[in-house]
Amino acid sequence: MELELRLIFKAVGFFSLIIIGIPSNVIILAIFTQVRITEKKLLPSNTVLTMLALVNLLVIFSKGFPQAIHSIGIRNILNDFECKFISFTYRICRGMTICVTCLLSCNQCIILAPPTKTWLYLKQKVPNNITWIMMLLWCINGAIYPSCFIHVRAKGNYTTSKYTLHLEFCNHDFMSFISYVVNGIAIALRDFFFVGMMTLASCYIVFVLYQHGKQVQGMRSSDKTNRKTMEYKASRAVVLLVTIYVALFGIDSCIWIYTLTVSEVSPVISDARVFFGTLYTALSPIVILKTNKKLKTVLLCNTTKGLLLFSDSSMNDTSQ
Question: How far is it, in rounded angstroms, from Cα 196 to Cα 189?
Answer without folding.
Answer: 10
